[in-house]
């Protein structure tokens, strides 16, 4: 499959709507990429302004999801989409949901950073901060890879995304263990509160990587026409290597 398939209909309006839908998904993904970039800067530099930018961008992400829903409904109601068109519509909705949830998770992390900044603290002083940085770096890289795959209808990086998500599961376990050990060492209410916020931020960062894998699997369905969400590693690799 290539993008030309979405531009060869007799109806020029359908061609425009499908191309618009494709581009809208990429635009929404670009906003989430910027959101994660701002979040990384907020965490690294204790930049409260960048953290607030994450919250502002989340509102824009929510509007983008609504626009994608509108475009999908317009195609279904007024046009006669082919089977491949319908796959694009279904996947656009599914990817938009994952992108919107990424934004929600980013907001949770930004709120932790804002709270720490208001207390004149440094995120880097919190337990498991290095693990959080690993998770956020992976989140940004995985999202970029999946969006590139979507834009080119390319599934060649799917297993790379799969393995990176598994690696981030292990990072989450290590990070959670470190924070829980620190929690066991203190009875200070304020310290316990910020440690719990950090634990929630770690879990939110890991969920962002989960959503990147979801998007990669959606791209596989769009390109190959098969739902691979329930496949294990071996079955997925075998399918992707098949013609």
Automatic annotation (TrEMBL):
Transmembrane segments: none annotated. This is Phosphate-specific transport system accessory protein PhoU. The keyword Cytoplasm applies. InterPro entries: PhoU, PhoU-like_sf, PhoU_dom. Belongs to the PhoU family. It holds the Pfam family PhoU. It is found in: Cytoplasm. Residues 25-111, 133-219 form the PhoU domain. The keyword Membrane does not apply. Gene3D superfamilies: Phosphate transport system protein phou homolog 2, domain 2.
